[in-house]
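Exam revision sheet. Question 4 asks you to relate a sequence to its structure. Input first:
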Amino acid sequence: MKINEFWEIYNKHYKKFTSPGFQVVNYPLGGDSGCFMRSIYKNDDGRYCIDITVERSNTPHHKEYDSEEAAVEDILYYCYSETGYKYQG
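Answer key, C-alpha cells:
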C-alpha cells in the first residue's frame, strides 16, 4: 500500500479517533508537543520514515524503512492497536 492510499483510509476511518493520545500527521515531528503523535513521510533522501513523539523529550523516536509498504504497514498496525478498528481493504 502507498502512503497516499493510507491517507485516504486514515481520513475516512481513523481521523474520527483523533485525540491527545492518538494522531497521525504527514510531516517530521519535533519535540514533545503535549500530545502523543506519529508521523509518516518521505525524507529528502527518499527513505520512508515514521516519527513518534516521546514524552518530555526534545527529539522524537525516528524509524526509517527501505520500502513504502513497510512504513504504511507499521503505521496502519499502530492505528488499529490504538483504536481497535481494523480496516478491511
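Marking note for examiners. DSSP finds two helices and four strands in the chain.
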